[in-house]
Amino acid sequence: MPRVAIALGSNRGDRAASLAAGREGLAARGIAWQVTSSIYETEPVGPVTEQGAFLNQVAVGETELPPQALLEVCLAVEQEQGRVRTVRWGPRTLDLDILLYDDRQIAEPGLIIPHPEMMRRAFVLMPLAEIAPDWPIPGTGKTAAEGAATVPGREGVRVWRSSAMKPPM
């Protein structure tokens, strides 16, 4: 089965509960989680900075869902958790981004994998490197750990709570 990495983020309501609901919603729709990162807290990035801090996490699992179907599942789970898309980079109850899908590079309508912003986002690369440091990021020539070591903004990413799930032995 293909291995996938999903970034989860929330800065509205009970942020930790939203992350948990996101993982559970995806698991109920065909993702078998193998490992989750610690939860990290970060200030918002982008043009809309007048909002609360985010909790972020990355989870790695396996799924038989093809990439477009996985995207549809992510959008459905976000919507179930009250996500309303009004302002780009604005506050949200739950944000789910497909970071990686095996070693594939995908450019389809509405879906680009690896996620086009991931190499510039410390709040994505640091949790990914925590749980999958050797995963090569297609098209970059870097692993997750190498990307995390050089990404700007590392100083603003802090562990909020230790990992809930470690890799299987």
Estimate the helix proportion, in percent: 25-40%
Query: What is the straight-line distance between the termini?
Result: 18 Å
β-strand percent reads 25-35%
| Total discrete domains | 1
How would you describe this protein?
There is one protein chain. The chain is of the alpha+beta class and 169 residues long. It has helices spanning 15-27, 67-80, 122-131, 144-150, and strands at residues 3-10, 31-36, 39-42, 54-63, 95-101, 106-108, 111-113, 136-137, 142-143, 158-161. The protein has one domain (3-161): Alpha-Beta Plaits. Helices cover 26% and strands 29% of the residues.
Which labels suit this protein?
169 residues, alpha+beta, 4 helices, 10 strands, 26% helix
Write the layout of secondary structure elements.
Layout: E1 3-10, H1 15-27, E2 31-36, E3 39-42, E4 54-63, H2 67-80, E5 95-101, E6 106-108, E7 111-113, H3 122-131, E8 136-137, E9 142-143, H4 144-150, E10 158-161
Antiparallel strand pairs: 1-4, 1-5, 2-4, 3-4, 3-10, 6-7, 8-9
Helix pairs in contact: 1-2, 3-4
